[in-house]
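Exercise 7. Given the encoded structure of a 363-residue chain, write a plausible sequence.
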């Protein structure tokens, strides 16, 4: 005689087994379809920068009109050439500065039309030779920026999106002023090493700096089919900077204020060959900057520069942007120096060039 508990156990097993068999895919095709559905759902999550059949790139010189959740890092090296910088009685010198930069950026998509964004960047710049180190020293800076992006309009059929961004930035750093320290030592030949390290003269070497800025602008994206796209931006920025050098004659640090109002106009054209079977995209960019600067104790001046960038990226995955970029500023604003009689003079037009390794993951 079979125990009733065994009969009930066998019956329950048959029922559960039938339910599992009914709910599970019965063929390899069905199992493949279920896996594809999961992959498709993940792709849709990463396709927040897709519009009109085109996957847009994140430009180097501007931000985008898209609301995304992403995290990225950028590693860069730079070269800054300043021709004919006035350095007092020594006349003028061509100055060469080199630097390294590391940036981490983050985006958080709260809704399809609202997101938060920000970045943090560390930069070290120093003279590349003895005249450059003496004349322009070195600097160490930490920069942060945070803000919001709001999508105003999106049209999938025309491949158009427009958004606005508002950002607040803060910069804290130190200028290493080697020439000021050397002049301070030469001005007092009785100084000892202990006097330089522990006394006021040693304070000539470092000048703390800080800067705050507010930025707002309109950003647009236009798909031109699966291969081509355009992105553009028009922004305004107001920045106020404080520098605190040590003045030996006064025996204290003084605050030197600089204010600047800037207008930035940028355009980026991308060509993506992924739809043609080659997962490579190329983007060319142009940025024009103009504005006015009010410097401490100096006449106001007009700022103007033109910058070009070219990036090459892997475009085989919607949730990944990895590539390299090269940037050059053709005619930066001249740097101010001192003439032989202590008057303020300007250098020639500086040239800034840098390269970046870019890695960004998009959810």
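Solution.
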């Amino acid at each position: 005689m079979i125990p009733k508990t065994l009969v009930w156990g066998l019956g329950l097993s048959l029922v559960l087994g039938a339910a599992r068999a009914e709910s599970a895919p019965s063929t390899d095709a069905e199992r493949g379809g279920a896996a594809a559905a999961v992959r498709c759902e993940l792709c849709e999550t990463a396709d927040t920068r897709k519009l009109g059949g085109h996957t847009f790139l994140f430009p180097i010189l501007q931000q985008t009109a898209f609301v995304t959740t992403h995290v990225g890092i950028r590693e860069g090296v730079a070269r800054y050439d300043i021709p004919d910088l006035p350095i007092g009685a020594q006349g003028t010198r061509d100055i060469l500065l080199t630097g390294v930069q590391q940036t981490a950026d983050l985006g958080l998509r709260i809704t399809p039309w609202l997101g938060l964004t920000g970045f943090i960047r560390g930069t070290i710049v120093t003279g590349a030779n003895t005249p450059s180190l003496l004349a322009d020293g070195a600097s160490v800076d930490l920069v942060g920026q945070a803000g919001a992006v709001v999508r105003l309009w999106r049209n999938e059929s025309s491949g158009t999106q427009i958004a606005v961004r508002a950002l607040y930035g803060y910069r804290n750093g130190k200028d290493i002023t080697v020439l000021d320290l050397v002049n301070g030592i030469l001005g007092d030949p009785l100084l000892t090493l202990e006097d330089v390290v522990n006394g006021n003269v040693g304070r000539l070497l470092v000048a703390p700096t800080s800067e705050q800025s507010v930025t707002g602008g309109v950003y647009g994206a236009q798909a031109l089919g699966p291969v081509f796209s355009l992105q553009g931006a028009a922004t305004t920025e107001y920045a106020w900077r404080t520098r605190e050098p040590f003045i030996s004659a006064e025996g204290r640090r003084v605050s030197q204020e600089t204010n600047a109002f800037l207008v930035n106009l940028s355009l980026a054209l991308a060509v993506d060959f992924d739809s043609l079977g080659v997962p490579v995209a190329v983007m060319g960019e142009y940025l024009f900057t103009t504005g006015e600067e009010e410097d401490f104790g100096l006449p106001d001046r007009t700022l103007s520069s033109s910058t070009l960038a070219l990036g090459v990226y892997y475009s085989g995955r919607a949730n990944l942007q990895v590539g390299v970029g090269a940037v050059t500023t053709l005619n930066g604003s001249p740097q101010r120096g001192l003439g032989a009689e202590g008057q303020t003079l300007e250098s020639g037009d500086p040239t800034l060039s840098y390269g970046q390794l870019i890695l960004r993951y998009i959810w």
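Remark. Residues 279 and 317 are 8 Å apart (CA to CA). Students should compare their own answers with the one above.
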